[in-house]
Amino acid sequence: MRSNTITVSAVIPLYNGAPFIREALDSVLSQTEPADEIIVVDDGSTDDGPAIVEELALHHPITLLRKPNGGQSSARNLAIRHTSCSHVAFLDQDDAWYEEHLEILKRPFTQGNARRLGLVYGNLDQVDRKGRLVQQCCLDENVSPQPKRSLRDCLRHDMFILPGATLASKQAMIDAGLFDERLSGYEDDDLFVRMFALGVGIVYLNVAVTRWRIYAGSTSYSPRMARSRTVYFHKLVELFPDEPRIAFFPTRDAIGPHFLGLLTGEFIAASRSGDSERLRQAWEDIQQVVSVMAPKVRRRMGWVRPIIEATSLGPFSSLSRRAIRHVARDVFRELREQEKMRQWTGDKLQALLAPVPRTP
To answer: Above 90 in pLDDT, residue 169?
Structure first.
């Protein structure tokens, strides 16, 4: 077994994170295996967050980089380019690492057993705004499969490889093109799916290494997030087009259903709240997604389109929600049936290929 030495830069993008940045940095400074470098990137904050970092930097080796506001992608990319360390461990400003975070995530790299290893990630414990535990190992309950073993696993659902629970090779991220600075949402999924497609080795450790803080302010809808989702959808369609000659349909069978599910939820939430602009954008995006799906899905959406457009707002809005749920439910039911058939076919093939026991 060979042993590899790596150096680690802890990277935290900061934007108006004064309520949480001290806790985040304390968690980095409390590691059983310390980071070789700590970088905080101030992404144009207007609160006291940078002053808190400067205060801590008087007593600890923390580098504070400053830039105009451009989003997490540009902040992370600045730190990646700045560091001389071989690996980067990300942390969001409102999350925190457990003490053994780096010790655990470094092991697969230092043991040197995984081929072309470029990314190691762990599970997360969900906490609320006050840091109280909500759920342990929350990836265990998520529909997105872990670890990722196929492109379909990466495209059919959100990746749920959270940057705050990852340790990544700097060179592997550079080779994949770094974070897409057009994205403010889905930028982590975008990078990690590109790394998977390049054949970068990815290891999942099913142990909680990060406290993942979820609260109203961290998950609220924004037009910027909606635009980012649309950009990401079109990017995936371009990167992974259907190839009928080899019966490979990543867009039709994975990307389309994935985004139809996301946008169905978005449409229903906008309809219930009466947010006409959010509703208009969700409906426009749904039609773009349906256009890349199977002909029968396009036909079904065509049948219910007049109902949706006539009733999406006002006293009969429940009819539009029911109509769009009907189309989405049919799509997901058929996908489940396909998955069962795929699993059955795989089990039968495995049985056929199994060695026949010899009769004595």
So the answer is: yes
